[in-house]
Amino acid sequence: MYYEFEIGNLFLIMGVIAVCKWLEDRLNTIRLTSVMVDTTIATILFGMLVFLHTEVVTFKNYSAGAVSFDWVFLNIQIILYVYLAVTVSSRIGMAFLTGTLILFYWERGFFSDWRAWLTFIFVLVGSLLICRYAEWLLRQFWRIWLATLIVSVAVWYTVAMTMVNDTFADWAINFLMFNIQFLIVNAFNIRLRRDYNREMMLANQVSHDELTGLKNFRAFSTELNTFYTAFQEQSQSFVLITMDIDHFKHINDTFGHLVGNDVLQQTARVLAHLIDQEGAPNQAYRTGGEEFSLLMPVKNRDEAWLKDFCQRIQQTIRQQQMIVNQQAVQWTVSIGCDDVIQDDDSYLEVYRRADKDLYHSKENGRNMITIRGESVQVG
């Protein structure tokens, strides 16, 4: 019966870690807010640890040979606690870790002893440091093993204060089982992260432009359709901003294609920065050679905001400069902007209007802004 619980809980841990990584990826794919993703995953993890704590309460008075069931579940809890904290990138990890630790200490009645309060603070701080430096720790096995062992020793010491019949054999077998379990979970986690990173790399290559790092036209077409569907089903209006770098061929012909690539990359960085300032789920894309597009939900944004944002794009790009052969290279963009309307038969309708607005800007002198067919004074 002892080994059944060991093996069963070990596979349970690996399954939970795999499910959480899969769930995190899927929730991010459907563009839920980061708080919703974190809350969902943290709830699952917390429920898993509650389940393991329930096992401890049920079997804490039983034993098999020299090893008590209390140790069986304790090691599993510590490893699950640490690995879920470092594997799943939760921005509300502090609340999750604190709540889990409080439950663990409260359930066992540790808070009645002042020494337990010291170990509680030590374990909590250690866990948060493990979360903070997870990527660095996971690069080398001995780092994450040592960090987990330090936390484990503090927990073992606290548990030992309430045990009266444990022998040296109990501690020796417990330490041996801890290392075996840790090795298995660590090997599984390495494989999981390797496969996950490979999938993310392949997905990124399919959906992102290699030169600028922005999403490409394929991703733009897919996500424009997603925005349009949300508009049709939930009335979530959005605006599409398209732009071209003015006289880009002249830049290539005069300074060379490498400089042209630098101009594209710098323009992409500007757009990515401006989009980041506006927050999710706004998106930036490179949709053609020197053409870029932005998708932005309207929410509470009015006409004045849209005009100001387009002017900020132009002003920021005009301020960019590169020195080539002691000659300053500067550039501007023409902008077209339109929003989705109820009469649109498909997501392509708003794209056609925004594209038409862009060409209106280009045909009327460039370095211009056209919003819904009307020219806007350049800021």
TrEMBL record:
InterPro entries: Diguanylate_Cyclase (IPR050469), GGDEF_dom (IPR000160), Nucleotide_cyclase (IPR029787), Rev_trsase/Diguanyl_cyclase (IPR043128). The keyword Glycoprotein does not apply. One of its GO terms (cellular component) is plasma membrane. Residues 236-374 form the GGDEF domain. GO terms for molecular function: diguanylate cyclase activity. Pfam families: GGDEF. GO terms for biological process: cell adhesion involved in single-species biofilm formation; negative regulation of bacterial-type flagellum-dependent cell motility. It comes from the Bacteria. The chain crosses the membrane at residues 6-23, 35-52, 64-84, 91-108, 114-134, 141-159, 171-192. Keywords: Membrane, Transmembrane, Transmembrane helix. This is GGDEF domain-containing protein. The lineage of its organism: Bacteria, Bacillati, Bacillota, Bacilli, Lactobacillales.
